[in-house]
Amino acid sequence: MAVTEKHSDVPEGIHRAQSADVENRFRQLAAEWRDAIGPLSSATKIVQHPAYQGIIALGSDVVPLILRDLEQKPDHWFAALQAITGEDPVAPEDRGRMDRLAATWVRQSKARVYL
């Protein structure tokens, strides 16, 4: 079977610019979210914050950015990853253990080439 290449009518420079825009917007929203949720302990309030919802709205282009962030420091990105990808690779016994949640998502993402 032949391998087909994806071709786009959009010039490569535009893709890079869009990627940079998504990354800048992600960084801005993530900083806003972290500043706002610092004192919160409610997972529901953490993931319902408007900046967090804005990150989800960025769609699949933000998944590699979230995963890289998770690799550096586990945080409450799991609901966003589930909402964007429709996946939940975490075993029931690992729920509530942020280090294991992060490790599972990062490992799974490498298998699926998100990173």
Helix-strand layout with pairing:
Blueprint: H1 12-37, H2 43-48, H3 50-57, H4 63-72, H5 78-85, H6 98-112
Helix pairs in contact: 1-3, 3-5, 4-6
What does this structure look like?
The chain has 6 helices and no strands. The chain is mostly helical and 115 residues long. The longest helix has 26 residues, at 12-37. The protein is globular. Mean pLDDT is 83; it is low at 1-11.
Number of helices: 6
Mean pLDDT: 83
SSE string: HHHHHH
Number of strands: 0
**Major beta sheet, specifics?**
none
Calculate Rg over CA atoms: 16 Å
Q: Tell me the strand percentage band.
A: under 5%
Keywords:
115 residues; mainly alpha; 6 helices; 0% strand; globular; disordered N terminus
Summarize the structure.
By secondary structure, the protein is mainly alpha-helical.
